[in-house]
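CORE FACILITY INTAKE
Project code: CF-77B
Contact: R.S. (postdoc)
Sample description: multi-component assembly, two entities in total
Requested service: structural model of the whole complex
Turnaround: standard
Below are the sequence entries exactly as provided by the requester. Do not edit them.
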Amino acid sequence: MSVANRSSAPAVTRRAQARLGIVLVIPVMIMVVVFFLIPMGNALYYSVVDFDGLNPNPPFVGAENFIRMFTDPRMWHALSNNFIWIVVGTAAPMIIGILVAMLLWSVQRGSVTYRLAFFLPYVLPGVAIGIVWGWIYDPVNGLLNEVLRAVGLGDLAKGWLGDPATALYAVLVTAIWAGTGFAIVIFLSALRNVDIDLVDAARIDGANSGERLWFIVLPQIMPVFLMVLTLTLVGGFSVFDIIFIMTGGGPAEATNVLGTYSYTNAFQLNNISYGTTLALLITVLSVPVAILLNRLQRRHSLQGTSV
Amino acid sequence: MTGLTEGAIRLTEHEGRPQRRTAGRSKAAGQVARHVVLIAMAIFTLVPVMLVISTTFKTPEDVRINPFGLFTSFSFQNIIDAWTVGRFSDYLFNSILLSVPSTLLVIAISTMAGYAFARLPFPGRTFLFYLVVLGLLVPFFTFMIPLYFQLRSIGLLDTLPGAILVLTSTGISFGTFFMRAFFAELPVEFEQSARVDGASEWQIFARVMLPLVGSGIGALTVFTFLANWNNFLVPLLYLPSGEFRPLTAGLYMFTGGRTLDVGPLAAGTLITILPVIVLFIVLQRQVTQGFISGAVKG
């Protein structure tokens, strides 16, 4: 922020600035209070009462919703799915993203076209993505089964979203397909700042491409790497849309995560208080991770590595 | 292709130096292999989009027999069905009705707040900025349930203004954060000289500083419009009667019909993603730059 020398400004200017500043932030603050802070406060309130959506004075139940939550095997199952989602859904886009970005790094012709192709899924609406991938996974004549039959692996053909053993991973593949382009494009823009002479020097010294990536490139793009890590990790905790659209948490809760379990409780089973408590758990889990990774990222940036 | 010519040029350049020649040849081969991998990945990435286009333009009979075979027949029937029977013309109109005002609101609110947080010291500024940024960390569905009852109690549930305001609220945290970064980068000299010339603080903001962040506003506009266009949870939850149902929520409701309606469903999907794809290709620089700087400036 470039406010350091502002203190020398005359008092009249400072007052005028403060006045305009307050006026300019009034709209955003009204929006934040009405559409974020008040509902957040109500979420906390719902978690300590038993609200059915109708009763204006719901009875106070203390920690009951929380006790129920921590003794609920379905919650633990959903949470374990969240962890699978976070680990696979973070690692895969990061690894594929850095590898493809490295491939694209020295490509001159067509690099814009590739970038467009890879990034396109990221801007598509989740509903459309869910519908198309539903066709790809179709049990009868889905594209995936057709391909498997064509290469002689027809025995493996199945309803990928209908089988509890594969459903979660099928949705994960869709999410990875949709999200990797973001990692590719960001990594590629970070690679532009990498000192190419260092990479060439390492090549002459006999470092293979894996070593060059690990020892030379990765340290230089670390802040960006951590930033993408933060975004995908936090996105992993709060995953909801794509699972809700593709399976709704089924079959037999096989793809249930905290988000879909919370939604089912609140809007289908009318357990509004319990659904809200589950949603709060996600926030409590994800916010510290986000702050921690953000700190780490700041420290790397301050060391003057890149960006 | 470039790899090949590049390698060839290098070969002629280093004629008579055998060790260099093999290096050039293996480099060319490396370039070809690189393009093969990249093209394969690009095809894999684009197949789902191809599938939508292919199924949309099949004849209804062909959809019934062979719904997902690529480009086996041609007809506009599915588009016509989706547009008329499937009500996708209404949905398209509602999508515009929801996305355009909410995008304009996000831009106006975020630009003002971004400027204030970047360049106008006032009491409590840091604290208020943290409150705004907190909205970036907390997932929407943490408070979407209480928000439903809140909107119901103030009479905004199932109304166009209600949905527009909620859509706006989902974009302002990022928008403020994003615009603040743009304003913070501008040199102090501009506002100082304007102040010497007797400009008021408002004039400095509106006449001097605002025109300098045009690229930021452009990127944020595209980004926000796409996010609002693609949002399906807000209309699904807060417009339950379906009177103002946009494309995304319309598609979601349509999926209940299952396999029978694959043709019109594909057409509806195409109607939904076509504006996104066109916008993305035409304004690709703004889109990718918006995403990148939005992420990196953090």
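Facility notes:
- Residues 1-21 of chain B have pLDDT under 50 and may be disordered.
- Residues 1-47 of chain B form one domain.
Invoice: internal transfer
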